[in-house]
Design goal:
single chain; mainly alpha; Rna Polymerase Sigma Factor, Chain: A; Arc Repressor Mutant, subunit A; 2 domains; 10 helices
């Protein structure tokens, strides 16, 4: 967790809170934990349906961050730092609990990709149908493709930040994202595809 993470050109507005937290400011840490909890929880649900396990992992991650705060690297993008740390935590705890044997067995599942949130925002039935159609298509992609779509369009992260989270090269992320979008576009009508991506970018 103390590995150096490259700084994105798009700095997190909470980077100052991160710096204060590293200096021992408990209030700043509390604000960070609250601000990013929902994003962390939603991301974790794509790997596990066990809500108690997810909450435990997030709680343990926060405790570890506080205990090791003086050893953590500086970062200008807190969200991607925390998402990557949680990803590692989920893998580590799943292996420890014998949920699977190998690290690469962590499986991303976009089948339930935040439709509850979208339904609150999108009241028009036709638009809801477009979102549902997009999620159906995404659910048939590979797990890595599902994860990269989720991080790019649901979490609004840049390629550099996705590369850090998924432990990929920046060009590998760009190539995978390009191939994934092309694959979705080949399945879906171009106009519907374009509108769908715009919609999920605002959810």
């Amino acid at each position: 967790m103390n590995n150096e993470i490259n700084i994105s050109a798009h700095s997190d507005p909470n980077a100052d809170l991160w710096h204060k937290f590293k200096s021992g400011d408990a209030q700043a840490f509390g604000e960070l934990a609250q601000v990013h909890y929902r994003a962390l929880y939603n991301y974790a649900t794509k790997f596990s349906s066990d809500t108690e396990f997810i909450r435990d992992c997030i709680q343990e991650l926060y405790l570890e961050l506080w205990e090791r705060r003086s050893f953590l690297s500086e970062t200008a993008f807190v969200k991607s730092y925390l998402l990557k740390a949680l990803r590692h935590k989920l893998i580590k705890e799943s292996v420890r609990l014998k949920r699977f044997k190998e690290h690469n067995e962590l499986s991303f599942d976009a089948a339930e990709a935040d439709l509850s949130v979208e339904s609150l925002i999108i009241e028009n039935e036709h638009l809801k149908h477009q979102i549902k159609r997009l999620n159906q298509i995404v659910s048939h992609l590979t797990k890595r493709q599902q994860e990269i779509i989720y991080l790019r369009f649901y979490q609004n992260l840049e390629n550099e930040d996705i590369a850090q989270i998924m432990s990929l090269g920046r060009q590998s992320v760009a190539n995978l994202l390009y191939r994934t979008i092309k694959e979705i576009k080949n399945i879906w009508m171009p106009a519907e595809f374009f509108w769908g991506l715009i919609l999920i970018s605002f959810c």
